[in-house]
Amino acid sequence: MTADAVPWLVFAVLVAVLLVVDLVVLGRRAEVMAPRTALAWSVLWIGFGLSFSLAVWAWRGAASAQEYLAAYLIEESLSIDNLFVFMLVFGGLGIALRYQRKVLFWGILGAMVMRGAFIFGGVAAMERFHWVMYVFGGLLLVAAVKMLRSQEIAIDPAGNPLVRLARRICPVDTGYRGDRFTVRHPAFMLTPLALALVAIESADVVFAIDSIPAVLAISSDGFVVYTSNICAILGLRSLYFALAGSLERFRYLSAGLAAVLAFVAVKMLLGDVVHVPIYASLAVIVTCVGGAVFYSMARTRRDRAAAGKGPVMPPEAVPATALGDAVDAE
Known about the structure:
Radius of gyration: 20 Å
Largest sheet: 2 strands, antiparallel
Strand order of the largest sheet: 1-2
Structural class: mainly alpha
Number of domains: 1
Shape: globular
Order of helices and strands: HHHHHHEEHHHHH
Protein backbone atom coordinates (compact mmCIF):
# COMPACT_ATOMS: atom_id res chain seq x y z
CA MET A 1 0.00 0.00 0.00
CA THR A 2 1.38 3.38 -0.96
CA ALA A 3 1.59 6.29 1.47
CA ASP A 4 -0.92 8.29 -0.60
CA ALA A 5 -3.51 5.53 -0.20
CA VAL A 6 -3.41 5.56 3.61
CA PRO A 7 -5.47 8.77 4.10
CA TRP A 8 -8.11 7.51 1.67
CA LEU A 9 -8.34 4.17 3.45
CA VAL A 10 -8.55 5.74 6.91
CA PHE A 11 -11.26 8.15 5.75
CA ALA A 12 -13.24 5.35 4.08
CA VAL A 13 -13.12 3.27 7.28
CA LEU A 14 -14.17 6.24 9.42
CA VAL A 15 -17.12 7.05 7.17
CA ALA A 16 -18.18 3.39 7.03
CA VAL A 17 -18.13 3.15 10.84
CA LEU A 18 -20.10 6.38 11.21
CA LEU A 19 -22.71 5.24 8.69
CA VAL A 20 -23.12 1.92 10.49
CA VAL A 21 -23.54 3.74 13.80
CA ASP A 22 -26.04 6.09 12.18
CA LEU A 23 -28.00 3.20 10.67
CA VAL A 24 -27.89 0.90 13.69
CA VAL A 25 -28.22 3.41 16.54
CA LEU A 26 -30.57 5.92 14.93
CA GLY A 27 -32.19 3.76 12.28
CA ARG A 28 -33.61 1.19 14.70
CA ARG A 29 -35.75 3.73 16.47
CA ALA A 30 -39.23 3.92 15.03
CA GLU A 31 -40.16 7.16 16.77
CA VAL A 32 -39.52 10.59 15.35
CA MET A 33 -36.12 12.00 16.33
CA ALA A 34 -36.57 14.62 19.04
CA PRO A 35 -35.14 18.07 18.23
CA ARG A 36 -32.80 17.93 21.23
CA THR A 37 -31.46 14.53 20.15
CA ALA A 38 -31.10 15.71 16.56
CA LEU A 39 -29.22 18.80 17.75
CA ALA A 40 -26.83 16.66 19.80
CA TRP A 41 -26.10 14.43 16.80
CA SER A 42 -25.67 17.50 14.61
CA VAL A 43 -23.05 18.85 17.02
CA LEU A 44 -21.24 15.50 16.88
CA TRP A 45 -21.27 15.43 13.06
CA ILE A 46 -20.08 19.03 12.79
CA GLY A 47 -17.42 18.35 15.41
CA PHE A 48 -16.19 15.40 13.37
CA GLY A 49 -16.11 17.52 10.21
CA LEU A 50 -14.12 20.30 11.87
CA SER A 51 -11.73 18.00 13.74
CA PHE A 52 -10.94 16.06 10.57
CA SER A 53 -8.95 19.13 9.53
CA LEU A 54 -6.35 17.98 12.07
CA ALA A 55 -5.96 14.71 10.17
CA VAL A 56 -5.62 16.64 6.92
CA TRP A 57 -2.95 18.78 8.61
CA ALA A 58 -1.02 15.66 9.65
CA TRP A 59 -1.23 14.08 6.19
CA ARG A 60 -1.09 17.10 3.87
CA GLY A 61 0.25 20.03 5.89
CA ALA A 62 -1.14 23.30 7.26
CA ALA A 63 -2.05 24.79 3.87
CA SER A 64 -4.21 21.78 2.96
CA ALA A 65 -5.86 21.88 6.39
CA GLN A 66 -6.84 25.52 5.80
CA GLU A 67 -8.17 24.60 2.36
CA TYR A 68 -10.18 21.79 3.93
CA LEU A 69 -11.72 24.13 6.53
CA ALA A 70 -12.67 26.69 3.88
CA ALA A 71 -14.17 24.01 1.64
CA TYR A 72 -16.02 22.42 4.57
CA LEU A 73 -17.53 25.74 5.66
CA ILE A 74 -18.73 26.44 2.11
CA GLU A 75 -20.35 23.02 1.80
CA GLU A 76 -21.89 23.11 5.27
CA SER A 77 -23.36 26.56 4.59
CA LEU A 78 -24.74 25.63 1.18
CA SER A 79 -26.23 22.44 2.61
CA ILE A 80 -28.82 24.49 4.51
CA ASP A 81 -30.56 25.02 1.17
CA ASN A 82 -30.81 21.24 0.95
CA LEU A 83 -32.81 21.26 4.18
CA PHE A 84 -35.45 23.49 2.61
CA VAL A 85 -35.63 21.07 -0.33
CA PHE A 86 -36.04 18.08 2.00
CA MET A 87 -38.96 19.76 3.74
CA LEU A 88 -40.69 20.73 0.50
CA VAL A 89 -40.21 17.30 -1.09
CA PHE A 90 -41.58 15.45 1.93
CA GLY A 91 -44.48 17.85 2.26
CA GLY A 92 -45.31 17.64 -1.45
CA LEU A 93 -45.35 13.83 -1.44
CA GLY A 94 -47.01 13.45 1.96
CA ILE A 95 -44.21 11.43 3.58
CA ALA A 96 -44.82 10.84 7.29
CA LEU A 97 -42.15 12.36 9.54
CA ARG A 98 -41.07 9.02 11.02
CA TYR A 99 -40.30 7.62 7.53
CA GLN A 100 -38.26 10.61 6.39
CA ARG A 101 -35.12 9.43 8.20
CA LYS A 102 -34.83 6.34 6.01
CA VAL A 103 -35.19 8.37 2.81
CA LEU A 104 -32.56 10.84 3.98
CA PHE A 105 -30.10 8.09 4.91
CA TRP A 106 -30.18 6.51 1.45
CA GLY A 107 -30.34 9.91 -0.21
CA ILE A 108 -27.16 11.03 1.53
CA LEU A 109 -25.46 7.72 0.72
CA GLY A 110 -26.31 8.18 -2.96
CA ALA A 111 -25.08 11.79 -2.83
CA MET A 112 -21.71 10.59 -1.53
CA VAL A 113 -21.23 8.35 -4.57
CA MET A 114 -22.53 10.89 -7.07
CA ARG A 115 -20.48 13.77 -5.68
CA GLY A 116 -17.37 11.61 -5.77
CA ALA A 117 -17.83 11.16 -9.52
CA PHE A 118 -18.44 14.91 -9.99
CA ILE A 119 -15.42 15.89 -7.91
CA PHE A 120 -12.89 13.60 -9.55
CA GLY A 121 -14.25 14.51 -12.97
CA GLY A 122 -13.90 18.20 -12.15
CA VAL A 123 -10.39 17.83 -10.74
CA ALA A 124 -9.28 15.83 -13.79
CA ALA A 125 -10.81 18.41 -16.15
CA MET A 126 -9.08 21.32 -14.39
CA GLU A 127 -5.72 19.53 -14.48
CA ARG A 128 -6.03 18.78 -18.18
CA PHE A 129 -7.83 21.88 -19.46
CA HIS A 130 -6.96 25.16 -17.76
CA TRP A 131 -9.89 26.98 -19.36
CA VAL A 132 -12.34 24.83 -17.39
CA MET A 133 -11.51 27.05 -14.41
CA TYR A 134 -13.15 30.00 -16.18
CA VAL A 135 -16.21 27.92 -17.01
CA PHE A 136 -16.61 26.99 -13.35
CA GLY A 137 -16.13 30.63 -12.36
CA GLY A 138 -18.86 31.71 -14.76
CA LEU A 139 -21.22 29.02 -13.41
CA LEU A 140 -20.62 30.27 -9.89
CA LEU A 141 -21.38 33.87 -10.85
CA VAL A 142 -24.66 32.78 -12.43
CA ALA A 143 -25.48 30.73 -9.32
CA ALA A 144 -24.71 33.70 -7.07
CA VAL A 145 -27.05 35.99 -9.04
CA LYS A 146 -29.82 33.38 -9.06
CA MET A 147 -29.47 32.80 -5.31
CA LEU A 148 -29.55 36.53 -4.59
CA ARG A 149 -32.64 37.09 -6.73
CA SER A 150 -34.56 34.03 -5.49
CA GLN A 151 -36.33 34.81 -2.25
CA GLU A 152 -37.98 31.40 -1.99
CA ILE A 153 -37.12 27.87 -3.08
CA ALA A 154 -39.82 26.43 -5.31
CA ILE A 155 -39.85 22.64 -5.46
CA ASP A 156 -42.59 20.61 -7.13
CA PRO A 157 -41.80 16.90 -6.62
CA ALA A 158 -44.63 15.84 -8.92
CA GLY A 159 -43.19 17.97 -11.74
CA ASN A 160 -39.63 16.67 -11.30
CA PRO A 161 -38.54 15.11 -14.65
CA LEU A 162 -36.97 12.07 -12.96
CA VAL A 163 -40.02 11.57 -10.75
CA ARG A 164 -42.25 11.70 -13.84
CA LEU A 165 -39.96 9.20 -15.57
CA ALA A 166 -40.13 6.86 -12.57
CA ARG A 167 -43.94 7.06 -12.64
CA ARG A 168 -43.92 6.14 -16.33
CA ILE A 169 -41.57 3.19 -15.90
CA CYS A 170 -43.26 1.71 -12.85
CA PRO A 171 -46.71 2.15 -11.26
CA VAL A 172 -46.84 3.87 -7.88
CA ASP A 173 -48.88 2.78 -4.88
CA THR A 174 -49.82 6.26 -3.65
CA GLY A 175 -51.82 4.88 -0.75
CA TYR A 176 -48.91 3.02 0.82
CA ARG A 177 -47.86 4.37 4.24
CA GLY A 178 -45.05 2.00 5.31
CA ASP A 179 -41.29 2.38 5.24
CA ARG A 180 -40.53 0.39 2.07
CA PHE A 181 -39.46 1.77 -1.31
CA THR A 182 -41.21 -0.97 -3.32
CA VAL A 183 -44.19 -3.27 -2.78
CA ARG A 184 -46.01 -6.06 -4.63
CA HIS A 185 -49.67 -5.11 -4.69
CA PRO A 186 -50.07 -7.55 -6.49
CA ALA A 187 -47.56 -6.38 -9.15
CA PHE A 188 -44.25 -4.64 -8.47
CA MET A 189 -44.90 -1.00 -7.54
CA LEU A 190 -42.97 1.98 -6.22
CA THR A 191 -44.05 3.79 -3.06
CA PRO A 192 -44.07 7.53 -2.30
CA LEU A 193 -40.81 6.96 -0.39
CA ALA A 194 -39.11 5.89 -3.62
CA LEU A 195 -40.37 9.03 -5.39
CA ALA A 196 -39.09 11.17 -2.51
CA LEU A 197 -35.67 9.51 -2.83
CA VAL A 198 -35.59 10.21 -6.57
CA ALA A 199 -36.58 13.85 -6.01
CA ILE A 200 -33.93 14.37 -3.32
CA GLU A 201 -31.16 12.76 -5.38
CA SER A 202 -32.03 14.84 -8.44
CA ALA A 203 -32.12 18.02 -6.33
CA ASP A 204 -28.66 17.19 -4.99
CA VAL A 205 -27.36 17.04 -8.56
CA VAL A 206 -28.47 20.65 -9.01
CA PHE A 207 -26.84 21.72 -5.74
CA ALA A 208 -23.64 19.86 -6.61
CA ILE A 209 -23.33 21.84 -9.84
CA ASP A 210 -23.06 24.98 -7.67
CA SER A 211 -21.20 23.70 -4.63
CA ILE A 212 -18.48 21.54 -6.20
CA PRO A 213 -17.07 24.30 -8.45
CA ALA A 214 -17.09 26.55 -5.37
CA VAL A 215 -14.91 24.07 -3.50
CA LEU A 216 -12.67 23.54 -6.54
CA ALA A 217 -12.00 27.28 -6.41
CA ILE A 218 -10.52 26.71 -2.96
CA SER A 219 -8.48 23.57 -3.66
CA SER A 220 -7.59 21.28 -6.55
CA ASP A 221 -6.58 18.44 -4.20
CA GLY A 222 -9.08 15.65 -4.76
CA PHE A 223 -8.70 14.36 -1.20
CA VAL A 224 -9.39 17.78 0.33
CA VAL A 225 -12.37 18.46 -1.94
CA TYR A 226 -13.97 15.03 -1.49
CA THR A 227 -13.49 14.72 2.28
CA SER A 228 -14.83 18.23 2.91
CA ASN A 229 -17.90 17.44 0.81
CA ILE A 230 -18.60 14.14 2.53
CA CYS A 231 -18.04 15.50 6.05
CA ALA A 232 -20.45 18.34 5.30
CA ILE A 233 -23.29 16.12 4.06
CA LEU A 234 -22.89 13.31 6.62
CA GLY A 235 -24.79 15.22 9.29
CA LEU A 236 -27.53 16.59 7.05
CA ARG A 237 -30.13 14.15 8.32
CA SER A 238 -29.69 15.13 11.98
CA LEU A 239 -29.42 18.81 11.04
CA TYR A 240 -32.72 18.58 9.16
CA PHE A 241 -34.60 17.32 12.21
CA ALA A 242 -32.81 19.82 14.46
CA LEU A 243 -33.72 22.86 12.33
CA ALA A 244 -36.91 21.78 10.53
CA GLY A 245 -39.11 23.89 12.79
CA SER A 246 -36.93 27.00 12.65
CA LEU A 247 -35.70 27.21 9.05
CA GLU A 248 -37.66 30.42 8.62
CA ARG A 249 -35.12 32.12 10.86
CA PHE A 250 -32.52 31.84 8.10
CA ARG A 251 -34.45 33.71 5.44
CA TYR A 252 -31.54 36.10 4.72
CA LEU A 253 -28.94 33.34 4.52
CA SER A 254 -29.25 33.23 0.73
CA ALA A 255 -27.70 36.71 0.53
CA GLY A 256 -24.68 35.56 2.50
CA LEU A 257 -24.34 32.40 0.42
CA ALA A 258 -24.63 34.45 -2.78
CA ALA A 259 -21.78 36.66 -1.54
CA VAL A 260 -19.65 33.58 -0.87
CA LEU A 261 -20.34 32.15 -4.33
CA ALA A 262 -19.57 35.51 -5.96
CA PHE A 263 -16.30 35.73 -4.01
CA VAL A 264 -15.08 32.27 -5.00
CA ALA A 265 -16.20 32.92 -8.60
CA VAL A 266 -14.06 36.07 -8.79
CA LYS A 267 -11.24 34.20 -7.04
CA MET A 268 -11.39 31.51 -9.72
CA LEU A 269 -11.71 33.90 -12.66
CA LEU A 270 -8.80 36.06 -11.48
CA GLY A 271 -6.69 33.18 -10.19
CA ASP A 272 -3.97 33.77 -12.79
CA VAL A 273 -3.70 37.45 -11.85
CA VAL A 274 -4.50 37.74 -8.12
CA HIS A 275 -3.59 35.23 -5.43
CA VAL A 276 -5.99 35.20 -2.48
CA PRO A 277 -4.51 33.50 0.62
CA ILE A 278 -6.56 30.70 2.15
CA TYR A 279 -6.83 32.50 5.48
CA ALA A 280 -8.41 35.45 3.65
CA SER A 281 -10.90 33.10 1.99
CA LEU A 282 -11.75 31.63 5.39
CA ALA A 283 -12.33 35.11 6.80
CA VAL A 284 -14.65 36.07 3.93
CA ILE A 285 -16.66 32.84 4.21
CA VAL A 286 -17.09 33.11 7.98
CA THR A 287 -17.98 36.81 7.77
CA CYS A 288 -20.56 36.40 4.98
CA VAL A 289 -22.28 33.30 6.35
CA GLY A 290 -22.03 34.26 10.03
CA GLY A 291 -23.25 37.79 9.32
CA ALA A 292 -26.21 36.50 7.30
CA VAL A 293 -27.18 34.04 10.05
CA PHE A 294 -27.02 36.61 12.86
CA TYR A 295 -28.85 39.22 10.79
CA SER A 296 -31.56 36.70 9.86
CA MET A 297 -32.15 35.70 13.47
CA ALA A 298 -32.13 39.31 14.67
CA ARG A 299 -34.60 40.41 11.98
CA THR A 300 -36.84 37.43 12.69
CA ARG A 301 -37.02 38.25 16.40
CA ARG A 302 -37.64 41.93 15.68
CA ASP A 303 -40.33 41.23 13.07
CA ARG A 304 -42.14 38.77 15.33
CA ALA A 305 -41.95 41.18 18.25
CA ALA A 306 -43.36 43.97 16.08
CA ALA A 307 -46.20 41.71 14.97
CA GLY A 308 -46.97 40.75 18.57
CA LYS A 309 -46.16 37.08 18.01
CA GLY A 310 -44.34 34.69 20.27
CA PRO A 311 -41.01 32.99 19.62
CA VAL A 312 -40.54 30.59 16.73
CA MET A 313 -42.04 27.23 17.66
CA PRO A 314 -39.76 24.23 18.13
CA PRO A 315 -40.27 21.34 15.67
CA GLU A 316 -42.47 19.32 18.02
CA ALA A 317 -44.87 22.25 18.26
CA VAL A 318 -45.10 22.91 14.54
CA PRO A 319 -48.27 21.60 12.90
CA ALA A 320 -47.71 18.24 11.23
CA THR A 321 -48.45 19.60 7.77
CA ALA A 322 -45.62 22.12 8.08
CA LEU A 323 -43.12 19.29 8.33
CA GLY A 324 -44.70 17.09 5.72
CA ASP A 325 -46.04 14.72 8.34
CA ALA A 326 -48.97 13.20 6.51
CA VAL A 327 -51.65 11.34 8.38
CA ASP A 328 -50.50 7.76 8.80
CA ALA A 329 -53.07 5.43 7.31
CA GLU A 330 -51.68 2.26 8.88
